[in-house]
Amino acid sequence: MSRTVFYARVSTAEQTVSHQQTQAEAAGFTFDKVVVDHGVSGVSVPLAERPEGKRLFDMLHRGDVLVVRWVDRLGRNYQDVTDTIRHFMREGVVIRTIINNLTFDGSTSDPMQAAVRDALIAFMAATAQAQAEATKEAQKAGIAAARIDRTKYRGRQPSYTRDQLAVVRDMLATGAGASAISKATGLTRQTILRLRADMAAAEAALVRWGAEA
Fold first, then answer.
1. Distance separating alpha carbons of residues 97 and 100, to the nearest angstrom
2. 28-37, 41-50, 72-81, 187-196 — which is least confidently predicted?
3. Final residue of a domain: which of 113, 134, 156?
4. CA atoms within 13 A on the CB side of 45
5. Disulfide: which of 14, 41, 85, 186 matches 162 by Cβ 3.0-4.6 Å?
6. φ and ψ of 107, to 5 deg
7. Are 25 and 12 spatial neighbours (Cβ–Cβ below 8 Å)?
8. pLDDT over 70 at 14, yes or no
């Protein structure tokens, strides 16, 4: 009997699984099992080496569905992400994403459909790595700015959490509009536009208020 497994990865103390799961359920997903890795980097730790992620390789079988918020939950490294998705497809596991509602299924026999699917996997994996690198640079800039003015005026407390900022960043990377991101995060459209305009400033505000990267 096939089953649907939701996998979540949270890399910071402030991020929560509940937000990812709520977002998935709001999109109409239901799960037979939820698997979570806490405090694990998607950049440096492949899925197969994570405490809970590695269970997926034994747990998932042909006909099962693996649901993730986006491909960056599987990894932030191009090679790791593409290898992981292709491994599961070879095993007959279907991968679905909450953001953009993408489906990666290895069962297609049509060469054109397979080519389009593989190109999309490559694009998404490359985007995940590029976004991780951009995030790292934004955090560096944010931390540097926060250290300079932390002893002065902290400014208004951010109206968003690091988890929400991560969703905003991920959805922007897929080309989502402000309205769609607002619906997914609960943040106002104006807040989304402000965050999009200066991610480094957004990171700096979080750090000034104690949310270390």
1. 7
2. 41-50
3. 113
4. 16
5. 14
6. -80, -15
7. no
8. no
The model scores a pTM over 0.85 = no
Q: At what angle do helices 189-197 and 178-185 cross, to 10 degrees?
A: 110
User: Based on the domain organization, do 170 and 92 belong to the same domain?
Assistant: no
Q: Are 67 and 44 found together in one domain?
A: yes
The domain tally of the chain equals 2
**Rounded Cα–Cα distance for residues 23 and 116 (Å):** 27
User: What is the side-by-side strand order in the sheet with 94-97?
Assistant: 33-38, 4-10, 65-68, 94-97, 103-104
In a domain, residue 120? The reply is: no
Under 8 Å between Cβ of 30 and 104: no
SS3 104: strand
Looking at the structure, tell me whether residues 82 and 177 fall in a common domain.
Answer: no
Q: Are 8 and 20 in contact (CB under 8 A)?
A: yes
Beta strands in the chain (DSSP E): 4-10, 33-38, 65-68, 94-97, 103-104
Catalytic residue among 11, 18, 109, 182: 11
Cβ partners under 8 Å of residue 97, min gap 6: 67, 68, 69, 70, 71
Could you tell me the residue range of the domain that residue 158 belongs to?
Answer: 126-208
Higher pLDDT residue, 201 or 61? 61
Residues 109 and 130 in one domain: no
Helices (H), 91-185: 111-149, 162-173, 178-185
Last residue of a domain, one of 81, 113, 145: 113
